[in-house]
Amino acid sequence: MALMTKAFILIAMVACLTSVAHAIAGQATFYTPPYVPSSCFGFEDRGVMILAANSGLFNNRAACGTRYRVTCTGGTNAVAQPCTGRSVDVTVVDLCPGCAGNQVDLSQEAFAVIANTDAGRINIEYNR
Question: What is the pTM of this model?
Answer without folding.
Answer: 0.83
